[in-house]
Every structure is written in C-alpha cells, then in structure tokens.
Amino acid sequence: MKNTVKELNLTISSLEDKRTSLSQKNQELETRLQALNEENQRLNTSLRSEIQKNRELSSLGFIFMTPELKNWTESRQYCRNNGADLVMIKTEEKQSFISSRVNERVWIGLSDADEEWKWKWVDNSTLNQGFWIKGEPNTYLGRNEDCVEIRPMNNNKFWNDLVCSDKNRGVCEKAVE
C-alpha cells in the first residue's frame, strides 16, 4: 500500500509538472499568436496603402504599374499575366489621367513593330490621336524605335518612340466590368 501511495504521489507530481509546462507553452503560444495577429494587421494596412498608391480605379479602367523595369514585351506580358494589358491612350482625358500619375518613363500599349510607321494599339486598333514630343516619332540615330513610352519633360508628359528592348516600368490597364 505504501508503494501504491508513493507511486500515485509521483504520478500526481509528474502530471502537475506537465500541466505547468503545458500552461507555460500555452502562454507562449498565446503571446506569439497575439504578436502574429498584430503583424498581420500591420501588413494588411501596409498592403492596402501600397495598393492605393499603385492602383487606381476610375471610369477609365483599373490602372497599375509593373513593379520593376522591363522591356516593352516583358511589361506587356506582366500586364497580361495579371488580367490586363498595356494602357491604350485614345483620348486627351486619358492622356491627362495617366500623365498626372507617372513621374518616370513608362511603356504604353502602342507600337509599330508589325509595320514601320503604322502605329497600333495592343488591341490592334490604329492610332488616331497622339501626344508626341515635338519631332517624335523618329528613328533617332537610325535605331529601330518601335515601342512608345510616356516621357516626363519639363512638367509635361508626352510620347516618345523608343527601342523596345530598353527598360521602363509599364502602365497596365484592366477594363472595369
């Protein structure tokens, strides 16, 4: 009987140690969960802020930028992989809208790669109205400049033809449905 009581006391002591250890682990996990929830909340706030900065929803379409410098084809592919295409600027209103939101050289969805001097948008429609820098488009230094960028100059943002392999960020547009 003495051994049984001793064994029970050891079992009780062991169980109390395990309970204490589990309580400590539970407290550590609760503290970690709280820290993760706070980090999640901070990241969601930061993400919403970045999305607001980089994307704008308007009657003109859902506009966003490629996150890094790419050539024209890579920029277009990035847009397409994200359900969009390079932006088409067919009105003065859209030119003003896009120009007011860029402060660097950016690709738009216009090219004459298929046929020299026959400018086409990514939807295959032809260019009717352009917003070219004076003297553009050209073939500067005999280069094969088949793609179009918006180029900030003297607080104005106008179009420039450029070699398609040069690196810019792209302006993507997804139609609002």
From TrEMBL:
Magnesium found in the keyword field: no
Pfam families: Lectin_C
Boundaries of every C-type lectin domain copy: 57-173
UniProt keyword list: Coiled coil, Lectin
Organism domain of life: Eukaryota
An example molecular function term from Gene Ontology annotations: carbohydrate binding
Residue ranges of coiled coil: 5-53
Protein name stated in the entry: C-type lectin domain-containing protein
